Amino acid sequence: MRVLILFLLFTLSWACTPSTPLPDLYAEAWIHGSPDCSSNTDPLIQVLQYDQDTWILRQNKCTNYEAPFMFLFFGKDRALLMDTGATEGQDSFPLYETVKKIMLARSKASASLPLVVAHTHKHGDHYAADGQFKGKSNVDLVGLEVEDVQAFFGINNWPNEPVDFDLGGRNLTIIPIPGHQAASIAVYDPATQILLTGDSFYPGRLYVGDWPAFRQSIKRLVDFTGTQEISYILGNHIEMSQTPGQDYPMGTTYQPQELALPLNTSDLDVLAKALEELGDSPQKAVYDRFIIYPVDW
Questions:
Q1: 11-30 pLDDT tens trace
Q2: 32 domain-assigned
Q3: How far is Cα 44 from Cα 6, in angstroms, rounded to an integer?
Q4: Using CA atoms, how far apart are residues 271 and 235, in angstroms rounded to an integer?
Q5: How far apart are the first and last CA of the chain?
Q6: pTM of the predicted model, to two decimals?
Q7: Rounded distance, CA 295 to CA 297, Å?
Q8: By residue range, what is the domain housing residue 109?
């Protein structure tokens, strides 16, 4: 019933025109869990239509504390879903059905578009629901290893070569950014000027698995953003509170004062400068809107 009600709300909310103002993602109120998850009545998946061709989804924190975000882009020839969340089962996390309903409600043509399902990186809270898409008609599920990502997007010089990925009249840029995880990528959409950075850069704990690779990846992102217009930098989680430098502990299922999702190029510059100052010495460092957090080093 919750999914049906949510779908009806989606349908009503899509009665918009191209002149409708874009949502302010700094002010957007995301579902953020409950003190008692047994009484949580939030949708299993929150869906925000950013514009006619772009959707942002967030998983309910009471189904998984990670509460990852997912992103759905439409072109004329195909659609792209980035990430599949932190829960396998469709009963508690109906991602495939939600995406198909979005496609159907958007237009009849959208309902028959091929769907590419890719990932910002290979961590379980970003590909758990892959099984819901596996074997479905008109779905191309990109593998999780570096070699899979290279082959699908045609990246010959990993990680130094950004490549274009055309959805049909909507040309995205795929940017390799290993360091958090070996297969990490960023995605830039010139149409919205949104840059997706996965778990490499978001308002939270930036877990760094490969320190040299991470430093180089952030430098490449700074260089890239210096040549592009950027409206928002969007990662996949919110772990920071509205109190500067204070994060919610791992496992938190209620974040009533969480920070806004977007970061900006000034925040990215702060990270790049911090990494430059730290040099070859990995260490935890706390900043207002994120925390550098080396792991397994």
A1: 434 444 456 899 999 999 99
A2: no
A3: 9
A4: 14
A5: 47
A6: 0.93
A7: 5
A8: 2-13+41-294
